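Example 3.
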Amino acid sequence: MKAIIITGASKGFGRAVAIACAKQFQSPLYFVLNGRDEGDLLDTKRMIESNRNSSALTYSDIVVSDLAQINSLDSVMPQLFDFSNKEGVEFEEVYFFNNAGSLGTLATIGSDAHNILDISTAINLNVTSSCYLTQELMKRYVCSS
Amino acid sequence: MRNETYLSDVKAFSIINISSLAAVKAFETWGIYCAGKAARDMFHKTLAEELKVSNINRTVKVLNYAPGPLDTNMQKEIREGKLVDKNTQEFFQNMKKENQLVDPLESATKLITTLLSRPFENGDHLDYFDL
């Protein structure tokens, strides 16, 4: 089975990646779908089911979490990456789509529209959490062996 | 210990950072976004460098993929944002009008096809329009 972890999977490009995987991969797929909105994630899950390659069984876990909240990232990590705890399931390949991100405030440098909270929230989501997720995946599965 | 047991059969990992043209090109009013996207690319490029000299006995692929100007809510934010650079905004408003924005599924399909069948250098920044 292949594991496919997608952050920001509740809409936009993350959702499109989920559907493309369902269409193009042949073997059974285990999805871990992260996003902020549970209803949207469930829609993505349904779209995976309705678009899947006929030979590929799919399973989807939903992980509702805002990855900009870096203080709670450590508690989200097991839900994102410990998918392999399933009895009797063997994974031969893992795909991690590090996708979640936001535009933040768009305004010229020097504009009154910028403030420290918005800047740190955007950097936390786009950089801190993105780097940390890749770091933790490497730590758990690649560097530990 | 747990991970070694459970994932002993995993032969290959692919880590795909969803990047942007903004990682390699500055757009007026996009300072924070461009800075973040550039940082993310460089982090994953660093990982690719480290993998070259590591003795990890698994295949790890790393790719920075810029999906193109997608017809998503994020694009809408750019077109409608009050403080966004007017030239950029007009550029994307025209693209929207002319139906030139990229369909997210089309871009995602290209990405998966690349992962499955196109050789790339680990840590590369690949753009939708290059593929």
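Chain A has a mean pLDDT of 93. The radius of gyration of chain A is 16 Å.
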